[in-house]
Amino acid sequence: MTQRAELATVMDRLAIDAVITGYAVAVDDADWHGYRALFTPDGRADYRTAGGIEGPAAEVADWLAKTSRLFPVRQHLIVNRRLRLEDRNGDTGDRAELQADYVNPMRPEAAPGDSGGSEPTAGPVLMTGGRCAFGLLRTEDGWRLHSVVVREKWRRTTR
After folding, report:
1. pTM (2 decimals)?
2. Nearest-CA neighbor of 34 among 21, 44, 47?
3. Number of CB atoms found within 10 A of residue 12's CB
4. Which backbone phi and psi does 5 adopt, to 5 degrees?
5. Burial class (CB in 10 A: 0-12, 13-18, 19+), 158
6. DSSP alpha helices (H): ranges in the chain?
7. Mean per-residue pLDDT for 50-61?
8. Which pLDDT does position 121 carry in this prediction?
9. CB of 128 within 8 A of CB of 150?
10. How many angstroms separate the Cα of 97 from the Cα of each of 18, 19, 91, 144?
């Protein structure tokens, strides 16, 4: 691999990392316009193992916008990223696959008087974890998600 190809690979890795981080931030911040912008026009997402839906990214964003209101406090931590870039005779191609583990604590909106008083209290925290498979394509606008498949492995509620 030439020094030029190595630099291109590093740049692709950094750009893909920014897309994956942008994905987590968009979901956590309820930035559904930003979420949609991370996908290719024909991009799809699959949240069925987490009790969700599968379909075009725009449709899934609408579903996430509706259901995430139940948990206004959420924080996706996407870790252990394993990236595989398409290899075209030593150069990176236009496709990539990334698998990563996630942990997602979520807290519902507390209602006044939950603790018997007049002040709102924090509800229980729902913790979920699993693995995401991201398919990415290089586009004229940079790397974009072509597919996201969430495979929830566990969930628990804590106080």
Report:
1. 0.88
2. 21
3. 21
4. -65, -40
5. exposed
6. 3-28, 32-37, 57-67
7. 97
8. 56
9. no
10. 14, 12, 16, 11
How far is Cα 69 from Cα 67, in angstroms, rounded to an integer?
5
13 three-state secondary structure: helix
Q: Where are the alpha helices (DSSP H) in 38-131?
A: 57-67
pLDDT of residue 21: 98
**Cβ neighbours of residue 148 under 8 Å, at least 6 residues apart?**
23, 43, 44, 45, 46, 57, 132, 133, 134, 135
Q: Which domains does the chain have, with CATH numbers?
A: 3-158 (3.10.450.50)
CB contact at 8 A, 20 and 98: yes
Task: Tokens for 6, please give them.
Answer: 């190595």
CA distance 106 to 118: 23
**Which tens digit of pLDDT belongs to each residue from 60-116?**
999 999 999 999 999 999 999 999 999 887 778 999 999 999 999 999 876 554 555
Instruction: Give the pLDDT score at 111.
Output: 54
